[in-house]
Structure formats: C-alpha cells, structure tokens
Here is the input.
Amino acid sequence: MKLVFYGAGNMAHAIFTGIVNSNVIDSNDIYLTNRSNEQALKDYAEQLGVNYSYDDEALLAKADYVFIGTKPYDFETLAERIRPYITDKNKFISIMAGLPMDYIREQLDTKNPVARIMPNTNAHVGHSVTGISFSSNFGATSKDEVDNLINAFGSAIEVPEDNLHQVTAITGSGPAFLYHVFEQYVTAGTRLGLEKDQVEESIRNLIIGTSKMIERSELSMGQLRKNITSKGGTTQAGLNALSEYDIEGIFEDCLRSAVNRSIELSNQDDD
Ligand SMILES: NC(=O)c1ccc[n+]([C@@H]2O[C@H](COP(=O)([O-])OP(=O)(O)OC[C@H]3O[C@@H](n4cnc5c(N)ncnc54)[C@H](OP(=O)(O)O)[C@@H]3O)[C@@H](O)[C@H]2O)c1
Here is the structure.
C-alpha cells in the first residue's frame, strides 16, 4: 500500500509521523509533496525515511491513498495541478476542514472513493480523536485500511458526513476549549496567594495525572469524581459552589457556536 501526501504542513506532519512511528506501513511507501517548500520535504525524508517528489504523474500512478492536506482555500489550485494525473486506483482522504466530498470530487473531476477525516492537534502525541466519513463507494477492505492508518495517530469515530460539524466542535476544537478552561483554573489558583509559576506547574501535572486516571480506569468520569468527594469535605464544598452555575449550559453554548460556525464555513466554500 502506498500513501501520497499533498501538503506536508502542520496537520499532515502529525499524521505521517504517527503512521511512520507506528510501523503500520513501511516509511519507504510514503511519499510527500507540497507547493514549493522543498527543504521541509528534504528534512522529513531525512528524519523519517519517507520519499518526496514533485512528479505528480509518478506520484498518482502509485498512490493507493492520497491525503489532501492543504488549506481549504488552496484546494482549487491543487485540484488543477493533479486532475490530469488521477488514476482509478487513487482513493482520496481529505483532512481539509469544511469542504464537502461532492465538492472535492467535482474539483478533482473524479468518481473515485473519497473519505473526509477531522483530526485534532493531539495527533502530535498520537492521541487525536479523528472523525471520519466515507463516500458510499469506499469498499469495506479500504475502510479497514484507513481505520488502521488513523489508529496510528489516535482513535477513529465514523460518522455520516453531516455530523463532521459536531466532531469538529467537540474534538476538533476541543483541545482549545479545554486549554481555555485550564487557563482559567490557573488564574483562579494564583488568586489564592501562591506563585503563578508554582500554580501553573502544579496544574499541568494535575491535568496529566487526571488524564492518566481517566485512561487507566473503566469508571465513568462521574464515578471517578464521586470516589474522591467525601460528604461535607473540601471537594464537596468546591463542587457545591460550581453547581450554582449552569456549566453544562455554558459548554452547550460553546459547542453549538462551534457547530454553527463550521456549517457557515462549509457553506461559504460552496459559494
Ligand atoms: N491544524 C489543525 O489543528 C487542523 C485540524 C483539523 C484539520 N485541519 C486541516 O488541515 C489542513 C492543513 O492545515 P495545516 O495547519 O496543516 O496547514 P499548513 O501547515 O499551512 O500546511 C499546508 C500545506 O499545504 C501545502 N500546499 C499548499 N498549496 C499546495 C498545492 N497547490 N499543492 C501541494 N501542496 C500545497 C503547503 O505547501 P508549502 O509549505 O510548500 O506552501 C503545506 O505543506 C487544513 O485544510 C485544515 O482545515 C487542521
């Protein structure tokens, strides 16, 4: 199986690095290309043992899976570049946010199978939660192959294409929402009188430790919380204060706003 990456930027880098490091396929079967930054491709080739090329005809002649990792606004130029060389064996995997499969196929002038994936930045540490949807002509074996590739940099959740907006909100933008909550926690912590650096360092370790507890436990998050909340104790006092606010409603607003923006952006791209 041969993979070609059109675009070797921030997100594509996390993806092909995860795939190489997990040994799902030989690094020699991975080919990179981009617009013009050849030095970046050289560096990746040296570091990871992957190949790079600007010969589209040769790249597409061998590609089983073609990852499209440009920004959405660069896609039309990319489509023009590769359209003449697409072969029947090419299955496309778009990592571009917002661009519908129908539009991608129209621009590429192909009926070949297309998948859309919505990874998140945690792909850099092998922990992306990646939403995926497949065109109806994506065969079962190919779906399994793509799932394997995605599991190389985290976990996959398959959804109908329309639901990628929700995935974009919950896990695509999710790291930023959690960072924001953690930032507020640090600010509040410093108001209690400890040094800011001390508080920040403690909270980083608190978050890492709590994530590991979630990872290792089969209990729900609610149960993990109950297990450390004694009646009448300090944790209970803090939680009582939190329950005065509609935290669930705040997060619902946050997620609905992100979903609406994702829908708006994909409609703009349709225009
Ligand atoms: N960053 C995230 O957290 C995230 C999450 C989910 C989805 N995404 C999606 O991932 C995509 C890429 O984002 P990014 O942050 O990785 O972008 P990026 O770092 O700017 O990388 C863009 C890449 O596309 C290449 N490119 C541009 N035009 C091209 C062309 N005509 N032919 C071939 N390659 C071309 C660029 O090459 P040069 O360097 O040579 O210009 C560069 O390698 C976006 O569509 C975004 O929606 C990103």
Summary: Residues 174-262 form a domain with the ProC C-terminal domain-like fold fold (CATH 1.10.3730.10). The longest strand covers residues 128-134.
